[in-house]
Write a structure and sequence with these properties.
CATH architecture: Orthogonal Bundle
Shape: globular
Distance between the termini: 22 Å
Helix content: 40-55%
Largest sheet: 3 strands, antiparallel
Oligomer: single chain
Strand content: 15-25%
Length: 80
Amino acid sequence: MTSRQARVLLAVRDQQLAPDPLLGRLGPWLLDGDPTEWTLVTLVLRGLVAFDLDGEPWLTRTGESAAATLRAAVLTGARS
């Protein structure tokens, strides 16, 4: 998993993605003003993220497990 994918995965978990201000939920989801559509596509293809009927991304069980592993790795790395 790339650092960009990890960042978007954690942003989905923390609900930090925002819909495009002009297109709303029909447009790309933004993270700090940057579009994340292709990163979200790769996470969907890996089975880590899915979309609800309103078009909002959410973590699958596999995605929750990956996010927990990432968070543990970040915390362990911060202590070293």
